[in-house]
Design brief:
By secondary structure, this protein is of the alpha+beta class. The chain has one domain (14-412): Cytochrome p450 (Orthogonal Bundle). 49% of the residues lie in helices and 11% in strands. The chain has helices at residues 14-20, 24-32, 52-58, 72-79, 89-100, 105-127, 134-150, 158-170, 177-201, 212-217, 229-259, 261-268, 272-285, 317-320, 365-382; strands at residues 36-41, 44-49, 64-65, 131-133, 291-296, 300-302, 305-307, 312-316, 383-386, 406-412. A five-stranded mixed β-sheet has the order 1-2-8-5-3. A three-stranded antiparallel β-sheet has the order 4-10-9. It has a two-stranded antiparallel sheet with strand order 6-7. The longest helix is centred in the middle third of the chain and has 31 residues, at 229-259. The radius of gyration is 21 Å and the shape is globular. It starts with 13 loop residues before the first helix and ends with a strand. Bound molecules: protoporphyrin IX containing FE. The site of protoporphyrin IX containing FE has 26 residues, from α5, α11 and α15.
């Protein structure tokens, strides 16, 4: 026998989700004491899921598909059209392999070298300034490193390019002019990269192998055809944009060190294992990517609830990383919880769950871990800075959520 899903009543709860932001699904989960409930968003019946078991279901390709799930406004800014995020089945695995072809140990080390070099150059500049807005500065460092790594746009006015790339993720959840700026910048960037793809194919330029521009330009689909240049451009931006978005995570490192002075002391002499635990805890505690969307593929029943084909479904990432079934005192910042941690790939999902090659889990998770490790070492061992009195509260309904921390008295160590 099946039951009715608990339901957040109301004609439409879009306004509520905008108001509660990262907390919306968690709040309803507590209210109904259920990891599944239904609501109405943007005029559509929508199922919300949270927690490890629900995440495992969400990643079952027989139950959910990505095609037709992402709203147009997200494709116009964040994702682009025709990219890996909206593919399913074999077509997805084949495209994903293209991404993973640039994620070898050696190529990750190459990225790391570029990133370190850009950090050192930036520090020379910061030393000469009275104050910096760290988020803005680090975004530019990441834009430079990512473009060098991807083999594109390095000759550009980097300040402007950084703003253009950042609007792709900063504007995704906005409305009005910021959203339109995101769309405009996406069109412009895609057009420029498409031109570079054509130049690669015409033999005018020869980017290094491996690099996103090289590997993606010469990637063949399942029928043996090269991808449309527009699609290559979308996928190259699927490398650059999220690397720049790591500025949000690096900002969280600064916040975590500032809010937990004992941790700062520990990190100064920490071994690799503790450093990694600290980084995992930052990724678990702080909010970034709020939830994922998919569509029910065929009718199925789970926990006595019927999931109807075609129903839009959200998986709560923030809530799963704070779910009381998986995490003791989920709101406490405690890197020790990751010592000998044997969690499943579905309980800790800041960058998605499951398998990197077979499913949609973030293709750049290892790049992110490199970036965070290098940044943490840089912040703690290579530079001195002070954080003057300022409002460092995180708002839970701004997506993304990157406080513009002001740093002063910046010096090399
Ligand atoms: C700020 C750090 C990052 C966060 C929080 C993040 C988060 C995510 C999330 C939540 C997904 C969706 C997983 C799913 O749909 O199941 C994803 C997918 C993806 N990410 Fe990341 N990501 C980050 C960094 C990166 C980096 C550095 C890259 C590339 C170098 C990258 C490339 C991708 C790609 C290509 C996908 C699509 C994968 C697929 O659909 O199969 N991400 N990311």
């Amino acid at each position: 026998m099946t039951h009715e899903m608990p339901r957040d009543t109301g004609m439409d709860n879009t306004f509520k989700i905008l108001k509660d932001g990262y907390m919306y699904i968690m709040n309803q989960q507590e209210r109904f004491n259920s990891d599944v409930f239904e609501t109405r968003l943007l005029g559509q019946r929508t199922i919300c899921l949270t927690g490890e078991e629900a995440a495992e279901i969400f990643y079952d390709e027989n139950k959910f598909q990505r095609e037709g799930a992402a709203p147009n406004r997200i494709k116009e800014t964040l994702f682009g059209k025709g990219g890996v995020q909206g593919l399913d089945g074999e077509a997805h695995k084949h495209r994903k392999a293209m991404f993973m072809s640039i994620m070898s140990r050696e190529n990750l080390q190459h990225f790391n070298q570029l990133f370190k070099q850009q950090l050192r150059l930036a520090l020379n500049k910061w030393e000469r300034k009275d104050e910096i807005i760290f988020y803005k500065e680090i975004r530019e460092v990441l834009t430079r490193a990512s473009c060098l790594w991807a083999g594109v746009l390095v000759e550009e006015d980097m300040d402007k390019l950084t703003d253009e790339v950042a609007t792709l993720f900063e504007s995704a959840a906005s409305v009005g002019p910021p959203h339109w700026a995101g769309r405009m910048n996406r069109n412009k960037l895609e057009r420029r990269i498409k031109g570079l793809v054509e130049d690669v194919r015409n033999g005018k330029i020869d980017p290094p192998e491996p690099s996103a521009l090289y590997n993606f330009s010469w990637h063949q689909d399942l029928d043996g055809n090269y991808l449309e240049p527009e699609i290559v451009a979308v996928e190259v931006l699927n490398i650059i944009r999220p690397i720049v978005a790591n500025a949000v995570y690096i900002n969280f490192l600064v916040l975590a060190l500032h809010k937990h002075p004992d941790e700062l002391k520990k990190i100064k002499t920490a071994d690799d294992e503790y450093t990694k635990m600290f980084i995992q805890e930052v990724r678990r505690v702080y909010p970034f990517f709020p939830f994922l969307v998919a569509v029910v593929k065929d009718d199925f029943i789970w926990r006595d609830f019927t999931f109807k084909e075609g129903t839009l479904t959200l998986l709560d990432l923030y809530g799963t990383n704070h779910h009381p079934k998986s995490w003791d005192n989920p709101d406490t910042f405690n890197p020790e919880r990751f010592r000998d941690w044997s969690g499943s790939p579905f309980s800790f999902i800041p960058q998605g769950g499951g398998d990197h090659y077979l499913g949609h889990r973030c293709a750049g998770e290892w790049v992110t871990l490199e970036i965070m490790k290098t940044s943490l070492d840089f912040l703690v061992n290579q530079m001195d800075y002070n954080i003057p009195e300022q409002d460092l509260n995180l708002s839970m309904n701004e997506i993304p959520n990157a406080p513009e921390i002001e740093l002063i008295q910046i010096r090399k160590k």
